[in-house]
Amino acid sequence: MNNDKTNLEKKPVRHILSLSGGKDSAALAVYMRDRVSDMEYIFHDTDKELPDTYAYLDKLEDYIGKPIVRTTFDTTFDTLLRQYGGMLPSNHRRWCTRMMKLKPFEDYVGEDPVINYVGIRADEARVGYISTKPNIEAVFPFREDGIDYDGVQKILAESGIGMPPYTEWGRTRSGCFFCFYQQKIEWVRLKQHHPDLFEQAKAYEKGNRINGNVFYWSKNEPLAELERPERMREIEERWEIQQARETQNRKNVPLVTTLAGLETNEAPSSGCLICHL
Ligand code: SF4
After folding, report:
1. Helix or strand run (H / E) with residue 15
2. Are 113 and 11 in contact (CB under 8 A)?
3. Domains of the chain, earliest start first
4. What are the distances in angstroms from CA 136 to CA 7, 17, 39, 123, 128?
5. From the CB of 275, is ligand 1 less than 6 Å away?
6. pLDDT in tens, 63-118
7. Three-state secondary structure call for residue 93
8. How far is the centre of ligand 1, averaged over its atoms, from the C-alpha of 102 (Å)?
9. Contact, 84 vs 204, CB < 8 A?
């Protein structure tokens, strides 16, 4: 008889919903509020989120009537960055997610049996973070109940929570203000709406300790270049052309395709699910 397993079976199952500050996990919190009474709501706070995100979580906390537990890691982003030799995280060096989101989640859960509620929608092909820990089982209520992008918007509108405030100024995702998944236009918007945070992001672009190479957040373009007025204008103009093209394409999409939820008006994204859901 495996004693560890026997002990695990005796423990009550915990229900945990991780919030990212994004619309899908917020809508899931609203959706589950009256369905699972002993839900624990958590947010993996990197201390590098937008002020908009913190305000949105406060609003959500009032609605669900329970505290959203802020999990923290035992150091800071700046210390981690030093430990990684000054190499900024990127799509290929995603130590940020591992150290600031995944590890705090698994530490918070411990060895307890857990059902983890994940806000992937019915119209998404994404695969969520599924812990390899045997005591964590991920479930996808929106997928199971056929709730798509429009459904999420409806849930948020009817609850009065609404979409995350950063969407008003053109940002599409939650997560760290310097997230390397941002599109160029989102960097322009960050510069326009949170110039102080843009400056902070820019200050991180300097030679690393290991080989002296400079890493940039936005592919190979330094933020010092991107913020030049003529470059920002160029990015905005390109974005407007792209938007017009996408609107035209949407008009040409047969209604049945739109209804099937294959068109979501969302920016193309391969972002980090635990940060951006
Ligand atoms: S939001 Fe971006 S920068 Fe922050 S932890 Fe997630 S992937 Fe890393």
Report:
1. strand 14-19
2. yes
3. 3-168 (3.40.50.620)
4. 15, 12, 15, 24, 13
5. yes
6. 999 999 998 888 999 999 999 989 999 988 889 998 999 889 999 999 999 999 99
7. coil
8. 11
9. no
